[in-house]
Structure formats: structure tokens, C-alpha cells
Specification:
With 121 residues, the protein is α+β, with helices and mostly antiparallel strands. It is 54% helix and 14% strand.
């Protein structure tokens, strides 16, 4: 009786190990990605123009703060080109939002000790 239970337990462990190895192998195969191609600085060149307050233009791409108070962004091109245009056009807004957010956190959190504890959450 004990021998039968032990044999069943060994088979169960073997099956679990095989399933774990198969799942691990599958995840390794499926999650493989190629490294992105290196980009030359010339590909990211371009100067953002501001014809008037609230409108930023980079080629055919634009970013504006509309009269209704909403921010509107239009970008075109390949994925990398859209990402570069998005980053360049919205850079000032993102920096401003980060400053306001950090200022609000400092206002809400009472001291430096508690601010240091925030990195653990």
C-alpha cells in the first residue's frame, strides 16, 4: 500500500516537473524579441516650431492646446517617427506635469522621511 502511494507521488512529481519545463520553454520561445536597431542622431533631428502660443509644429505633426482646454496631438509616419514626434512635441507639457505632480506630492506628504518611504510602495 505504501509502495503504491510512493510510486503515485513520484509519478506526480515527474509530471509536474515535465509540465513546468514545457511551460518555461514555451515562455522562453514566445517572449524572445530582437534588439531594436540603432538610430543615428540624424533620424531624430528636427526643430519644433511654435508659430503662436499653444501650437507646436514638427513637419506634418502638430500639438496644440485648444480653446476648450484640451490638448490635441496629430502625428504621422512610421512607428519610430511617430514616437520621436510625440516626444519632441509634448516634451514641455510632460516636464510641466512632472513638476506639478512632484510639487503636489511634497505638499501632501509631511516630511522627507515619509517621502523616502514612498519608493518602497
Amino acid at each position: 500500500m505504501l509502495k503504491k502511494i510512493l510510486r503515485t507521488f513520484v509519478w506526480l512529481v515527474i509530471i509536474l516537473v515535465v509540465v513546468a519545463v514545457v511551460i518555461f520553454s514555451y515562455v522562453q520561445i514566445v517572449s524572445h524579441t530582437d534588439a531594436p536597431a540603432r538610430v543615428s542622431p540624424a533620424d531624430t533631428a528636427g526643430v519644433v516650431q511654435q508659430p503662436y502660443k499653444g501650437l507646436y509644429i514638427l513637419g506634418n505633426n502638430w500639438f496644440r492646446h485648444s480653446e476648450s482646454g484640451l490638448f490635441e496631438l496629430y502625428v504621422e509616419g512610421e512607428a519610430y517617427e511617430r514616437g520621436v514626434a510625440n516626444g519632441k512635441l509634448t516634451e514641455d507639457l510632460v516636464k510641466y506635469q512632472e513638476e506639478v505632480f512632484a510639487e503636489q506630492i511634497h505638499r501632501l506628504v509631511p516630511g522627507r522621511f515619509y517621502l523616502g518611504m514612498l519608493k518602497y510602495f
